[in-house]
Every structure is written in C-alpha cells, then in structure tokens.
Design goal:
By secondary structure, the chain is of the alpha/beta class. The chain is built from 29 helices and 29 strands. The strands form ten sheets. It has a four-stranded antiparallel β-sheet. Helix 18 packs parallel to helix 21 and helix 20 runs parallel beside helix 22. It starts with 13 loop residues before the first helix and ends with a helix. Bound molecules: zinc ion (2 copies).
Length: 927
C-alpha cells in the first residue's frame, strides 16, 4: 500500500471534501431505504418546506436534527428512511406569484383562473426544488428517490380520496357562519391561521337613541365601523340596570336603522355599559345571538375590506361561493346601510370617519385605551376580519377522540413533555376545521353541484353530468386548506391509498421532528389523520425543538432582516461547522441564540473542532506510517479491520491505554443514551470532551514518547479510539468524520462510515481501577504544571518534583507512571517521599498527598519573595480599611443590607487570599 494513503494535507479543506463525499454517498445509495429489508425500520417524514422556499436557519436547525437522528439510526442497524418533499403552500405560493403580477400592474383576475394556475406552475417548475438541493449542501441524508410534492398526481389522488371518504362518512359539511377572512389574501382562514396579537386599540362608547324617548343607550365597541351591520342591541337578562329596555327599539346612528333591544345570556354585563351591539355578519358571537333571535345578518363590508354591501370585492366580481346579501330588518339591503361617502372606503379609514361623524352628532360618549387580542393573517399579517360566509368544514370531534386516547395511553409521546398539556387542551376543545380557501392554487374541492336539480356530492372522478338527473354540473370554485393535504403526509408519501410495499413496511413512522409553532396546524392533525385513515398512529414520538433567535431573542426572520443564511455559513466555514453549532448550541427543546453580526464567533467552535479532529487524525495516521512499514499491517490496522469491538485488545496495555479505553466505553454509553433521549447537544459535547480533552490532551501526549517504538499497543489503541470517535461523531459532523475514516487502515473496499456500524460498549474494557489511577497521575501532572505556571517557571527549565504518598498504593501508581509524570509535568525528576525543607511551591492532591516543586535556582526566589510581600502588605492595608468600615455603626446600620453583605463577603475573600500568600511566603522560605 503506498505511504500516501495515510498522509493528510496539513489543512482541512471542507468545501472540496463535502461536495465530493455527498456525491459518493449518493452513488453508493447510502440514503436509500429498502422496503424488503429485514432490518427494523426507522422512519422520519420531513416537515415539507414550501416548494418555492429557500433555506433559512429554522430549516437548518430542523433538518440537521432530523439528519442526526436518521444517521444514528442507520448506523445502529435500522432500515432508516427519511422521506423528503415539498408543500405547494397554497396561500404562500399564490401570494408570491400575485406579487409578481402586481409588479406588472396586474391581478390574478386579469389572467383568469386557468392562466393564473399555469403561471404558478411555471414559477414552481423554475424555482421549486431549490430548497431540497440546499438540504444536500448541509448534508441531509434523505432518500431522494422518494421525494414527494403535495400537488403531484399521486398525492393529489390521496387528498381527493381522503376528502371523499370524510364526505361519505358525513364528516364534511357546509357551514354558514362567521369565519376569519383575510381581506388581503381574499380567503377564509382556519382558527389556527388567524393568530392573536396583543394590541393597544381603543374602546369607543357610542350612544344609540332609544325610540320613543329622549334617552340613549351606550354601547362599547373596538370596531365602530361594524355598527353599520347592527341588527340588535343586547343586554344580559339578569342585568337589573337595563331590564326595562328589553323589547324596546334603538336607532343605530349613521346606518340610520331601527333595531330591537333583546336579552341574551351571552352578553357579559361587566363589559362596557352592559349594552352590546349585535352585528351577526361580522362577529362570531353576534352571529350566534342572531341565530337565537332570528336576526338578519347584513354584510356591510366587502371581501377586500372596503365598506359596502356584498357586491363582491373592489374589482366588481361577485362573491362566488359566498352568501348572498342578507337584507336587514327594515327590508333594506346591507349595502344601502352604508352611507354614500363611506362606500368603497377601507375599513380603518372608515373607522376614523365614523368616529368623526359620531363626534359631530354628539353621539360619541368617550374613547378609552383598550388592550386586546387582534387576529392577524399568519401569511400576510393583515388584520383578519370576521365575516359571515359559507365554507366547507370538517367535524373534528370524532377525529380527535382516538388521537387523544393514543396520547393518554402513551402510544404517542411529545418531547419535551411540557408541550403535552398544550396538545391535550387543544384536542379536548377542538373546533371544526374550515378547510375551504378562496384561492386558485391548490387542490380544488371535489364537490360537484347540479345546476339543474341542485344535487351536490363529492366525487373521486370529475363527473360530466348530474348523477341524479343528468343535468350540467359545476365544481366548487374553492381549494382546500394546504394543511388538508399535509395532514396526510406520513402515509400519502408512502403510496396511500394504494397498499404499497412502502406503506406496509414503513408505516407507522418513528419520529417526527418539528417546530412547536405547527403543533396544531400539522402535528395534531397528522395524528388524527393517521388514526382515521390508517387506523394507526403515524409516528411514536414527536420531538419539538426550539427556535433560532438573534441576540435580542427575536425569532430570526426575513422581514426583520436578522436571519443568517445557512448557506453563507457553509461557504464561510463548512456544513460541519454549521451543524456543530446548531446541535451543540441547543439543548432539548430550547431555543438557540445566534449572532447574525458575528458569524466568526458563532460558528468558529465548529470549525476549530473540525481542525482539531483533523490534526489528531494526521498525527495518528502519521504514526501508522512510521510503524511496521506499510502501515496497513499494524496491529492497530488489524484491530480496526475487525471493527474493534469483536476482538480482544492487545494483551500488554499500559495504564494510559487502559484508561483511555475505559473512558471511551463511558463515552459510547453516554453518547448513545443522549442521542436516544434527543439530548443531541449532550451527545455532541461528550464526544467533543472525549476527543479534545481526553484523547488529544492526555492520551496522545502520554503515548507520544513511546508510540514510534511501541506499535503493539499505543498505535492499536489510538486507531481504535479514533475509529470509534469518528463513528460517534458522524451523525453530527458527517463530512470530516467520513473523510478521516476513509483514511483509516483495514476497511473493506468501498466501505463507508455513513453505513458503518454504531459502536457498542465492550464491558471488558471498562476499568474503574485504571480510571482511578490515571486520575491520580493526571492530578499530579496538573499540580506540577499549575505550580510552575504560578511561579512563572519558563517552559524549558525542568524542576524537581516531590510527592509524599500517604500509602503504598498511591506510591506504586505514581512510581509506575514515573516517566509519563516527569515528561508531561515539565519536571526534572520525581521524588516519592517526604518533602524537603527548600524554597518552592506547595499543593495537596485529593488523595491527601502533599506535592512540591523545588524553585531555588530555577527562578529568582528573592524577587518572588519581594513581590509576594508587597502583595501581602497591600492586601493588609485594604483589609484594615475594610475592617474599619465594617465596624462603623453608621455604615452597617445605614447602608443597604446587600451592600453590607457584599463587603463582608469581600473581607472573607481577602482574608483567604492573605492566608494563601502567607503559605506561599512560608514555602518559599521568605524571611
Ligand atoms: Zn393574508
Ligand atoms: Zn341534477
């Protein structure tokens, strides 16, 4: 074998290595899972990113965690499948293309539905899949042969099947109710998509004249513009103050309509004045009051948020599937309740105008500042408008029951556990799901209505005529909520509704890794869908990780401009450095804080660790080179070839050998257990500590003097330790570990670390005695090093070192490691016995052994004595002053207690320092 096999370039060049290795893994089909494998499966489905999305730090974190888990499972002998794919992301993608059109001065209505959808497809074909390529750059080991898209034909069939089944089970119904409407996206939203934000608004107190009297009643509202749609004023029936008015009528100002005063228990008598305006078409609670009292529900706002009747949106199109104009009690249409000067005016502008009009008419009693939650569109942040509308809903209670049961029985776990209560609470109070969206991009709702006889049904195929009368049919114009397709992800990606081998082998999955933000949107619904359509849970464990935040703890986002592009990090450092920071920097379920203004400090630890690993690798491989000639023939090579853990280690092991082998077993155990418990940071840091602090700082240093001559044990142990460390580190930093592992001797041709076996603990290598003894040796060396550093002994000057062992066992341990201690502690020799009465530095080891470094003749002792005496008298003066302060009654009684406590603490600290100085002066023999 040529010697160059073991020579590594002095600098690690990640960019060349990472691209080359990723291709090599692909070529070897290392990420491909086989449905006919006898191995137990381990399955993760990716949270599908938006098809037109680009990688941000949230993806970086989410996917690195998944990759660590999947790589670990693969090495541990599971048939590991990580299903990748993208989501068509209805609103988000449609928004992007609409913005493009806006730049051309057009709207989607200018293009028409078919042309618009074609345009979105063009955009998706051009940009879609970018994010999946970016995932390769950061090392994700997805099975790309199984990549799915929520709008591909097979997936579309799955969505349609799910819809039709729910329809047949009577779990889908048409609901006429007030829903959340985004006037910018022009679509309905689910409860989850309309997110609450705390805002400071105003509470307006408005006077409504009471008919047939000179009196007024006062209602309080945060949205005065909705008064144009009032069809009643309500009070609580138990409210003594207003009982006499029930049955009378009030005039709604500006709208100038007369409405009844009614009693309803839904009214909170403590809110405002106890009078509540009732606007059934623009408030969900009012709608229910309206239903109970047979009130009309006129719409007074258009879909785009401007004032006016239900004449469609600003562009004049009709409301499509929305409700017709309700008309009001006095027979007038909703539109005519809006005064001419307000027609077409935006709702917030209208609010100001109405408030001004009320003020002019003396009908605005007062305005108060008001703190309240306002719902915003989760896609565009526009304030959501409650709006009466006809939408398709899924009855969720029957779906939630099995999902809740599985959670109670522990069949599905959520980690960290603190999320379980949130999940449970949402599931127990689940509301029906509005699944229709007034968009064009997405799965069109497969409901067909006969325009002749009115028959309506859900169909798996597109019918050409009415199934009842043969008349012409029209399909519902709306599309399904994007989450209605992604809730099928764990089985639709595996071929459902067909009974495919993939579905049989890989369902249910194992782990789901996601951000807690989509616990309800996605996770809970997937669990419900899994039980409903598959009869089984979709996965056993949900791991909810934290969020990437900036130094001010703000979520990293494009709009805030505080994000870090993961690809920049790869470019500047490496994929491994990115991954290292993301994994080592975030503990179980906790947020990770990254500094976008200082990438160097943020990601240098990962790069530095890679370099350290590289240097250790270089050292080890260089030793093999100088071993018994061909390197590949050393005992180390033979042992590594046999995978280390199945054959006995060499017989003649030194204390250092036995110690590092034992520490390695502990590392294997701890890392494996940490990864099993999703404590990825702890696993990564344990590996780091082993490689850096134990292997590099101690073992490599300890064996350096003997390694060239001692091929039998040191080389073998080094190769074994490096081999196992690379295996343990591979899931976190896959590239550098594979690159180094490829250079280790004794592998079979074509063998790759990515599919190598996870190390197992060899209990016969656990050696508590070696750990105890080596700890003593380490402590001796450290004691000498510290003393030499304290007295500034130059590194080249070697000093006599004394230890007085308290017993024979300690003496023997130290004596056996004499050479190592002398060499590593920078000593001239080591004397085991009583300490001499000479000037020097003094310490006590934990076993009770005094240790001593002789200094006379090695440093200028007189000068050190002067320095220490000077320091001591300064400290004495400070102590005297402090003692005077603390004995002063004035200070002690008047100063705040914490100030006094701090001063007393300082006094104790200085006294201790003075004792230390006294000890030093004494041991140096200063007069
Ligand atoms: Zn919106
Ligand atoms: Zn018909």
């Amino acid at each position: 074998m040529p010697a160059t096999t073991f020579e590594l370039p002095p600098q690690y060049a990640p960019h060349e290595v990472e691209a080359r290795l990723y291709d090599r893994w692909l070529e070897a089909q290392a990420f491909h899972a086989r449905a006919d494998s006898p191995k137990p499966p381990y399955v993760i489905v990716i949270p599908p990113p938006n098809v037109t999305g680009v990688l941000h730090m949230g993806h970086g974190m989410n996917n690195t965690i998944q990759d660590v888990l999947i790589r670990c499972a693969r090495m541990r002998g599971r048939e590991a499948l990580w299903v990748p794919g993208t989501d068509h992301a209805g609103i988000a993608t449609q928004n992007v293309v609409e913005r493009q059109l806006a730049r051309e001065g057009k709207t989607r209505f200018d293009l028409g539905r078919d042309q618009f959808v074609e345009r979105v497809w063009t955009f998706v074909r051009e940009t879609g899949g970018t994010i999946l390529k970016q995932l390769r750059t950061i090392g994700c080991s997805c099975d790309w042969s199984r990549t799915r898209f929520t709008l591909d034909p097979a997936y579309t069939r799955a969505v349609r099947e799910a819809f039709v089944r729910l329809w047949e089970e009577k779990l889908i119904y048409r609901g006429h109710r007030v829903i959340h409407w985004c006037p910018r996206c022009l679509t309905a939203l689910s409860d989850e998509e309309a997110e609450f934000q705390d805002e400071t608004g105003a509470l307006y107190y408005i006077r409504y004249p009471i008919e047939g009297s000179e009196r007024f009643l006062t209602v309080a509202t945060t949205r005065p513009e909705t008064m144009l749609g009032d069809t009643a004023v309500a009070v609580n029936p138990d409210d003594e103050r207003h009982r006499d008015l029930v049955g009378k009528r009030a005039r709604v100002p500006i709208a100038n309509v007369v409405v009844p005063i009614i009693a309803d228990r839904a009214v909170d008598p403590k809110f405002g004045t106890g009078f509540v305006k009732v606007t059934p078409a623009h408030d969900a609670n009012d709608f229910e009051i309206g239903q109970r009292h047979g009130l009309d529900a006129p719409l007074i706002m258009r879909e785009d948020g401007t004032m006016g009747g239900n004449g469609g949106s600003a562009d004049g199109r009709m409301g499509g599937s929305r409700v017709p104009d309700g008309g009001s009690a006095d027979g007038r249409m909703g539109g005519s309740r809006v005064p001419d000067e307000l027609v077409g005016v935006d709702r917030f502008e209208a609010r100001k105008k109405i408030v001004a009009m009320l003020k002019n008419q003396g009908l605005l009693e007062k305005t108060e500042q008001h703190q309240h939650g306002v719902r915003h569109c989760y896609r565009c942040d526009t304030v959501v408008e409650p709006r009466l509308s006809d939408q398709w809903f899924v009855r969720m209670k029957p779906l939630a029951e099995p999902a809740l049961r599985a959670f109670h029985s522990g069949e599905v776990r959520i980690i960290p556990e603190r999320w379980e209560a949130t999940y449970q609470n949402w599931m127990e109070h689940i509301r029906d799901w509005n699944i229709s969206r007034q968009l064009w991009w997405g799965h069109r709702i497969p409901i067909f209505t006969c325009t002749r006889c009115g028959e309506a049904w859900a169909d798996r195929a597109d019918p050409t005529s009415c199934r009842k009368c043969g008349g012409p049919v029209a399909q519902d114009p709306d599309v399904l909520d994007t989450w209605f397709s992604s809730w099928l992800w764990p089985f639709a990606t595996l071929g459902w509704p067909d009974e495919t081998p993939d579905l049989a082998h890989f369902y249910p999955g194992t782990t789901l890794v996601t951000d807690p933000n989509i616990l309800f949107f996605w996770v809970a619904r997937m669990i419900m869908a899994g039980f409903h359509f598959m009869g089984r849970k979709p996965f056993s464990t949900v791991y909810l990780h934290g969020t990437a935040r900036d130094m001010q703890h703000r979520r990293m986002s494009k709009s805030l401009g505080n994000g870090i592009d993961p690809l920049d990090v790869v470019q500047l450092f490496s994929a491994d450095a990115l991954r290292w920071t993301l994994i080592a920097g975030s503990s179980l379920g906790a947020d990770i804080v990254l500094n976008p203004d200082d990438l160097e400090t943020t990601f240098a630890p990962g790069r530095n660790f890679a370099n350290k690993l590289w240097n250790i690798g270089r050292f080890v491989l260089a030793q093999l080179n100088s071993g018994d000639g061909a390197g590949g023939g050393t005992a180390g090579a033979r042992w590594a070839a046999a995978k280390g853990d199945t054959v006995a280690p060499p017989a003649e092991l030194t204390l250092a050998d036995r110690w590092i082998l034992s520490r390695l077993q502990a590392t294997i155990r701890e890392v494996t257990s940490a990864f099993e418990q999703f404590r990825l940071d702890e696993g990564a840091k344990r590996c780091f500590d082993f490689v850096w602090k134990e292997l590099a700082d101690w073992y490599v240093e300890a064996v350096k003097p003997r390694i060239a001559s001692d091929a039998s044990s040191a080389q073998t142990v080094l190769v074994y330790c490096l081999d196992v460390s690379l295996r343990l580190l591979h899931p976190v930093v896959p590239f550098i570990t594979e690159e180094l592992w490829q250079r280790l001797p004794g592998r079979a041709a074509g063998e790759l670390l990515v599919t190598a076996r996870w190390p197992e603990v060899q209990s016969r290598l656990i050696d508590e005695r070696a750990e105890r003894e080596f700890a003593l040796v380490q402590e001796s060396i450290t004691a000498s090093r510290n003393l030499r550093a304290e007295y500034k002994v130059p590194p080249k000057i070697r000093t006599p070192f004394y230890i007085n062992p308290p017993n024979e066992e300690v003496r023997k341990t130290l004596d056996d490691s004499r050479e190592m201690i002398i060499l590593m502690s920078g000593s001239a020799n080591m004397v085991l016995g009583p300490l001499p009465n000479l000037p020097g530095g003094y310490a006590v080891l934990t076993v009770g052994a005094p240790a001593f470094v002789e200094l006379e003749g090695f440093i200028d002792v007189q000068q050190e004595c002067r320095r220490l005496s000077g320091e001591r008298s300064r400290l004495d003066q400070q102590l005297t002053a402090l003692a005077a302060k603390l004995s002063n009654e004035n200070f002690v009684s008047r100063a705040p207690a914490d100030v006094v406590a701090r001063e007393r603490e300082k006094e104790r600290d200085w006294r201790f320092q003075r004792d230390v100085l006294d000890g030093k002066l004494k041991s140096l023999g200063c007069s």
